[in-house]
Design goal:
Blueprint: E1 2-4, H1 5-16, E2 31-40, E3 43-50, E4 57-66, H2 80-95, E5 107-109, H3 111-118, H4 122-134, E6 138-141, E7 150-154, H5 158-171, H6 175-182, H7 189-202, E8 204-207, E9 217-223, H8 238-247, E10 252-255, E11 260-263, E12 266-271, E13 277-282, H9 296-307, E14 322-329, E15 332-337, H10 344-348, E16 374-379, E17 383-388, E18 401-406, H11 408-415, E19 444-449, E20 453-458, H12 469-480, H13 484-487, E21 492-495, E22 553-559, H14 564-576, E23 581-587, H15 595-599, E24 603-608, H16 614-623, H17 628-631, H18 635-647, H19 654-670, E25 674-676, E26 678-686, E27 690-691, E28 707-708
Parallel strand pairs: 9-18, 22-23, 22-24
Antiparallel strand pairs: 1-4, 2-3, 3-4, 5-7, 6-7, 8-9, 10-11, 12-13, 13-15, 14-15, 16-17, 17-18, 19-26, 20-24, 20-25, 21-26, 27-28
């Protein structure tokens, strides 16, 4: 910044404090350090100015450095990182000399020149030289007497020193300090890549001996975004839903392998013949993470809270048939409904119905307490830590600690080879557990296809250009005939033919067109061909009155992350081949629940996470209050949907209810209210001694199932005749 000489003399110099580094401010040189001072015992500030003689103003730089001084006990024993900073600065300063040869060859220097390079006094420069010499980084031969020059040789490579220090910090779990090195100017490109490699090896599944850390089994990984709130009543996003499942329990829990509901915080339940009154018996001796007992009053509070309009839960409509939650005794409750609700276990097994404490301090939604297998022990702007809950009422988790580091700079370099961040649920949540180069044994790999999907909503509630069936046909065909994996790359996989994978027919690009319209062809690359190639098509020919004559424009709304940026950009280019202008607006994820945001969009590009229970997921998609699907339906279509949804709870058969939900979904697809796109390919790589690895319905590894086995038995040991799995699954 530009300031006057008087301003420096009267304001800046007194503000930093007097010290021996202060020198008179005389603007007689073109460049000089004009002042320095000690605002604190361990900090040195200096002011560096550049100006031309005669000018009234100069360019000012104020730099901040930790200071080495004898009275702070640092001579010869300076904090290593501070000393490294000075060494790298000295190394860089001498390397810039065009006449400098081998850095390890002695060169003539003076103490004043070193002090200038390190922006310190000559006294502090001598202290730094002494400390560097003791570490073996330099060879120093001081000049004795007038006219005898000092000689300095720089023996250590800065990259090697910094990397060695970084490895030590990583071993102590000081991840953030190591990451900060990546943002410095000290590292060369080679050194920066080596540091990234060291960081990669510090993430993953780690096992310690218990002496260097209070935990034995650790899972550590980076994330491209900070999670939001962990309030079960408000959570809708995939990552947050995953953590809610680790932190909380529900009254009942759905087992997808056996397709039935199992006890959770309720060990037994029963209902009347009409499914209008249900009684639940609660498990005893359950505690929250803060050791407070989980009582029937907490259950009452949690269920009432879901229906409280002031909470603004997006799931409130799904629980509107609950008329009363009545206390029977300290371990049992009755739930009375306005009509038969055979699907009530699905409602009570949802993450939204997790039991929370009725006493919640300020900020509880960010750092909540639950009864789940893990407790949230730490959360800041960089780090989120889960630790195994020692009070868990079931078998405790075998992984002691989970660390999720918010490190977008590391995440991007490590997993974003295709310049795309945030394929949430697309597998790269797990690829960072990859084997290090020196691992002698190959790692295991488990793969799956996401149960949910990426999709595009057509806002039919907004009367406009989407009322033209020909335009909807083009949007539909462009998306459905896109080979997402081949064109867009990354972890994009198969074409989706239903919101939930196992409830959909085999994937096919063939979707019925709007009535009264003809077919058209979409190029395999979706955008590479020009509009002239399709001029013969009746839908595009301006002479036949097709839509190209009107030059339609569409507005697409989506949120950053989950691959949306690349998907939206491709769709924009593909539609431009048909003369359709697509504008893209990125909003915060939470803004998608705002009616004004949705009302301004023609298209919404979204992702649908799927919980273990398909019935709950389908009801949430079609019936929850903040459902994007519902917000884009015309009023008359929404009334018809609600009428048919209201008939479902009276059906005792779960299979029959699911069939009718799928039928409602199919009608929305056939009428081009929704266009399904693709599913993520998911994978988890892990060392062979890690067991219990599986990818959950939300696309994450279920932490409570993980455990470590020892390496294979010695050949001389008695081998068991067979391996028998006797472990109880942690439901």
């Amino acid at each position: 910044m530009a300031v006057t000489h008087a301003r420096i003399r009267t304001c800046l110099l007194p503000s930093i404090g007097a010290g021996e580094a202060d020198r008179p401010f005389e603007p007689s040189e073109d460049n000089a350090i004009i002042s320095g001072g000690f605002p604190s015992p361990d900090l040195f500030l200096f002011i560096y100015c550049s100006w031309k003689k005669g000018n009234k103003k100069c360019n000012l730089r104020i730099l901040r450095f930790p200071l080495l001084r004898k009275d702070t006990g640092m001579d010869g024993g300076a904090p290593i990182m501070q000393l490294l900073e000075h060494y790298v600065r000295l190394y860089s300063s001498l390397k810039r000399n065009p006449f400098r040869g081998d850095m390890q060859e002695p060169t003539i220097v003076t103490v004043p020149s070193i002090a200038a390079s390190l922006y310190c006094t000559e006294r502090n420069a001598k202290l730094l030289i002494k400390a560097m010499r003791q570490h073996g980084w330099i060879a120093w031969s001081p000049g004795r007497g007038r006219g005898n020059h000092s000689h300095l040789a720089l023996l250590a490579d800065p990259d090697e020193l910094l990397l060695k220090q970084a490895v030590g910090m990583l071993g102590e779990g000081r991840i953030q300090e190591t990451v900060e090195l990546l943002n410095t100017e000290w590292l060369s490109e080679r050194g920066r890549e080596q540091l990234h490699q060291a960081l990669r090896q510090s993430f993953g599944y780690l096992r310690t001996n218990g002496k260097s850390a209070p935990y034995n089994h650790l899972l550590r990984f980076p994330s491209y975004r900070q999670p939001g709130l962990f309030d079960p009543a408000l959570t809708t996003r995939r990552t947050e839903l995953h953590f809610v499942r680790q932190l909380f329990n529900t009254l009942v829990e759905y087992d997808s392998e056996r397709d039935l509901f199992l006890p959770g915080l309720a060990h037994h339940w029963e209902t009347d013949r009409k499914a209008q009154c249900w009684r639940f018996y609660l498990q005893k001796h359950v505690r929250f993470h803060n050791e407070a007992p989980c009582t029937v009053y907490d259950v009452l509070y949690s269920l009432e809270r879901l229906r409280d309009p002031s909470v603004m839960s997006p799931y409130r409509l799904l629980y509107r048939e609950v008329q009363q939650v009545k206390l029977i005794d300290e371990y049992s409750i009755d739930i009375k409904l306005s009509s038969g609700q055979w699907h009530l276990p699905a409602l009570l097994g949802a993450a939204a119905a997790s039991i929370v404490p009725r006493e919640q301090p300020a900020g509880w939604s960010r750092v909540p307490t639950g009864t789940g297998p893990f407790r949230l022990s730490h959360r800041d702007e960089r780090l989120l830590v889960l630790e195994a809950n020692p009070f868990y009422f079931r078998r405790a988790a075998n992984v002691d600690r989970i660390e999720m580091w918010y490190l977008p700079e590391v995440y991007e370099q490590q997993f974003n080879r295709s310049n795309e961040i945030g394929q949430e649920g697309g597998g790269i949540n797990f690829h960072h557990y990859g084997a290090a180069m020196q691992d002698p044994e190959p790692w295991e790999l488990t793969v799956s296809t996401d149960r949910g999907c990426k999709y595009v909503l057509l806002n039919r509630a907004r009367k406009g250009v989407l009322e033209q069936p020909e335009l909807r046909n083009i949007v539909n065909k462009v998306i459905r005939e896109c080979d997402a994996g081949g064109i867009l790359g990354g972890n994009r996989g198969e074409l989706a033919n239903g919101f939930i994978r196992e409830l959909s027919a085999p994937a096919s690009a063939s979707v019925p067109l709007a009535k009264g319209t003809s077919d058209l062809q979409v190029p395999s690359d979706g955008a590479a061909e020009s509009a002239e190639r399709y001029s013969a098509d009746p839908l595009l020919n301006s002479h036949s009155g097709g839509i190209m004559a009107s030059q339609p424009s569409l507005k697409l709304v989506t949120y950053a992350g989950a691959g949306h940026e690349r998907d939206a950009a491709w769709l924009q280019q593909a539609l431009s081949s048909y003369g359709i202008a697509l504008s893209i607006r990125l909003v915060a994820y939470e803004a998608l629940a705002e009616p004004d945001v949705v009302a301004q969009a023609d298209l919404l590009l979204l992702e649908q996470p799927v919980d273990a229970d398909a019935e709950w997921t389908m009801r949430a998609i079609l019936g929850s209050g903040h459902s994007p699907v519902r917000s884009c339906l015309p009023p008359e279509r929404l009334l018809e949907l609600d009428r048919r949804l209201a008939e479902l709870p009276n059906e005792p058969s779960r299979d029959a209810r699911l069939q009718r939900l799928v039928q409602l979904e199919r009608e929305l697809l056939d009428d081009q209210m929704v266009i399904l796109w693709y599913r993520w390919r998911q994978s988890a790589s892990f060392p062979p001694e890690l067991r219990g690895v599986s990818i959950s319905s939300l696309g994450w590894v279920d932490y409570k199932q993980l455990w470590f086995a020892h390496d294979g038995m010695d050949e001389n040991d008695n081998q068991p005749a067979a391996t028998e799995e006797v472990d109880e699954k942690l439901y």
